[in-house]
Specification:
Delta(3)-Delta(2)-enoyl-CoA isomerase (chains A, B, C, D, E, F); EC 5.3.3.8 (chains A, B, C, D, E, F); about 240 residues; 2-enoyl-CoA Hydratase, Chain A, domain 1; 11 helices; homohexamer; lipid metabolism (chains A, B, C, D, E, F); delta(3)-delta(2)-enoyl-CoA isomerase activity (chains A, B, C, D, E, F); globular
């Protein structure tokens, strides 16, 4: 059974049985612009409202995601960088609140904002031979918002956290697997996606309720979620 | 003794003995744009570095300040409204951390962001016959950032706080004086400024140290200041 | 224009133009049992989903509400008192999150849990001649949950807060009006309800959006709301 | 009925029926030294373990208390000022946790640390004609520890709080009564103590339990108490 | 030297030199009912008041503990499940505050509430061949209270935490040892208890004071302890 | 290129290219007295104001540091122990806020306060054959201030944290390397310092800005830094 929800644009959502695959499409760097964030958030909202029981995110090409879309921010960086960061944090929150398990099948570089997006998933499967997990922050003189730092802190051992942020270490799949950043290592992109689908397939058979799953995840990271909500919800006009 | 520091543009800083007067100049509404925020923050930085012992803020014309500069935000409201809010919260923080007492001599309307700016001062003197203290938020469908709400909560009795925010009550000078929003009521603009200068003159004679004064204020509002710092300091690039 | 939504049981929800009236019906003490909490929460959910623009809560008889239903808790107080407290805090949260202004037209005693329910509204109108605002806690050796204390602290001046809780002072309408616990004082029940409807009628004419109103209230009391959510959301089974 | 527990030294504890009177004895300024703090804390511990149902604190002479004992701190101010502040905050905590209502019968100046001690009580009765409530901090360049600021903030309206701390306003009895800093105003020291005893006598008749009373107060000020405990409990050696 | 304190019922407390052994007795699943929680809390109170210097908890039969007593909660799950959870969190708090080191000699399954109880100890020794550490939450649609989640988060590496909660991984002794969930692995129940006693025996020889030990543990987990205290202490009646 | 800034006394600051070496000089135990804390803080302030891009801290002799100077605290331990703890926490804060990476080249024992100082650095290089990382707290009945505990918790895996604090385990270089307490292990003191300089040399070549580096570190540990600032900043006199 397979159903195609939406495939125009920068990402697609496909259904395989009770599993949804969210794919960053095309050979681009999958950088976060308002358009990409908006499409991703719509797909996740579709997932939340569906009766599917797992979400697997993956990518075409050489990049899972290479971070913020600096082309888009360039004309007015002072206002646009904070804006797109906030959009990215809302996307992270969507994943942290989603009522089903989330798997990142990382088939290429996950850098900067792309690292955040990868770490916002519950589980990570990575290619052995290609791609880095890399927080570019220190190399591009970018100060992470505290909510984004808090996401990384909640998901990494203390030494990995500081090597990732303060040293800008590029974790290959093998390194990432050794320090617990990923859950499984596979030969190539096809095997990476297959492993994610296999793990999801096994898990969706178990009798958990989707509301309970979402509730459990909320209870695990209350300070993180509260901080992201505070950061990403500050003032603005509401119009009809 | 009088010294003029800076008067070009939208505001000026003048010195009268050991008191600095920060004036929102001209017959405009003194709305907060990046330019006005930047000039105000530079004046406050000048004050902080000077040997003056009090700051009195006042205004020309009919408005103390009428809030955000919506002309400036209009071309790209989604990115510019959060940006200017953050600038305004940084300005509020500058006042909350300034190493001398701050007096707002409010000679006209203080609405929306103008209310925040007025409430960020330690003391308020207001005209009896003209001007309102008014949080326009409910009438313009504007959701205050939590840090701005926290500023108002820290400075108002609970009933005044909810009438101000949820009812959008317009407090005249007389009403404001009755509920403790202002410290003194005067006949006109000249008397309002004079009263602020008189209060400041008396206080600067006392033997307090400027570092102790700043430390005391910080110890009074730690949660407020922490919240404003978190909100206004999230990520961005730092370049030379 | 008038529409009757639901009137069976312990409370009813009626519509007058764009105002909903939530009435605690009958000559009882309107004590909080699971049944009453459930009915009230259903009415508030109905209100939230409707296109109405204000909610007025009022009561028949001599009691706005006299607190927890101790008849219901008596057979197993150790498990049932915490349970009903949690239900009451959820009801308070529903009001704090409702997307429209809330008015309590208090026509009789509001004691213990009834005081909490009254204080959870945005505005309060009270009879001059009858009824007390009274936290019975100290007189019945009842320790308020911290979230309930936090609600009262957020809505009262410090001196009123301690006289209310630690002295068990019974505030008559006149006393309550003097210290800012209520917004208006009326002669009798009919005038009390009429005043609430009049205030609401005026306010609903203004062009605020319901989502913005809800967002504003959330930004005013973030610590209170977070505390109530933590307290009222702890673990349990989720079943289909 | 009267019983004398302890009267040597700087303070005494006497029993009148079910009321204990803690008296700062002698015509001194009752400044807080380790010796005075220790004696006061012992008396409060005695009170906590007794079957008495109220504590009234009062003073001989012209001072309720004039603050820290600067004679004691003078030889080594850098280590001794923080030490005695911590002792004072522990004393404040003892009062905030005491299992009975506390009344300060303030018969003279309550300044600096003496203001903190007075405000740590549940209720305050003051002489009309003599004595000030006065936070000397701004005049002596003393930065309040955040826990002490938090005590004052929890007990005062926002405007009073800032006038007290940032202006160093000296509140006479009449001023203090107007702004809710005290609960009753009396002609002289005898009437002040008598009023405190009368209020206590009426209250002890009511059927509250001491554990419930203590629990109620804890639930009212959780952030304040947590902050004071954090501040006053940091590291040290524990020896047999 | 050996002394038997209490052995009736579901658990016993025995003394071996300066070590106390708390045993979950009988071939049952040692599920947490009010009776079992109450007996365990009494034993821990006895331990706290004794001059013993270590506590070793162990079990008869195949289960360390299999979680809440669902037979007891079944007649009224809505009120009884939150009640017993609160009792369990109080038991966890008792261990976190106990004035001596705590060792869990885990001779069988520690599942759901049983996992929480095991993780509340300072150290864990486990059988190699039998028993799982297993948070059943996801499989029984049970949302952990935030305080219980916080206990697990404080004691596990981030990857183990999410595999434990979100995947419901069953950790055998060997797996648990590899990821640092346990401190030592032994062949059978006798060796497991012996190893715990040996570790305790060595440690009790060192010259630490019991009050300092308790203070140290409190300083290690302040947010966890504060959260558990808030969750488990909400309102109720206090009667003589 | 080499420049000597300051070498008198207990520690020196030397410059090697863009790297500063802070050396605890002499064959002593390098215990923290007011004098040593003051000298270290002055050196770190010098570093912060310089154009250097890395700080390497190392030691002469057999001790990196053996903790507080108990000779200095002995005459008045009740006031002096809290005082020197606060000084040490300020020193830790200086390192956590320094605008360049910090490396501890640990050539000997780092015990008690010395462990805190070592863990306050970003990276640690240690001798293989000599020296322990050891929190003496449990063995000397010393209760860590919560801010100091929070530093250790932020830098260690949960199991290491509890073995370090509650067991007083002495981690040799080899043990420390296995559990991620140090980043590199070297044969002797010369090699240890050389490795730190080599790591720093490589890192200073990269194009990071110093303000961004400091901002990144602040965003990683906001609760830790806030807690340390609260603990170390409580009241005191400010004099000219």
């Amino acid at each position: 059974m397979l159903g195609l929800f939406f495939s125009a644009g920068m990402c697609s959502l496909e259904r395989f049985g009770s599993i949804l695959v969210l794919r960053l499409t095309g050979e681009t760097e999958h950088r976060f612009s308002p358009a990409l964030c908006s499409q991703l958030r719509q797909h996740i909202a579709t997932a939340a409202a569906s009766d599917a029981r797992a979400l697997v995110t993956t990518n075409d090409g050489k990049y899972f995601s290479n971070g913020l879309d600096l082309e888009w921010t360039k004309p007015e960086p002072q206002t646009r960088v904070p804006y797109i960061l906030r959009e990215l944090e809302r996307l992270v929150l969507d994943l942290l609140k989603l009522n089903m398990p989330t798997y990142a099948a990382i088939c290429g570089h996950a850098a900067a904002g792309g690292l955040l997006f990868a770490m916002a998933h519950d589980h990570r499967i990575m290619r052995k031979d290609r791609g880095f997990l890399y927080s570019a922050a220190v190399d591009i003189n970018f100060v992470l918002p505290p909510g984004s730092s808090a996401l990384l802190r909640a998901k990494m051992a203390p030494k990995v956290f500081k090597d990732m942020i303060l040293q800008g270490v590029k974790y290959t799949g093998i390194m990432a697997n050794e320090v617990g950043l990923v859950d499984s290592l596979q030969e190539d992109s096809a095997a990476t996606l297959k492993e994610a689908l296999d793990q999801a397939s096994k898990f969706v058979e178990r009798p958990w309720e989707k509301a309970a799953y979402a509730g459990l995840r909320l209870s695990m990271y209350p300070e993180l979620i509260e901080r992201l909500e505070r950061e990403s919800s500050s003032g603005g006009f509401i119009t009809v």
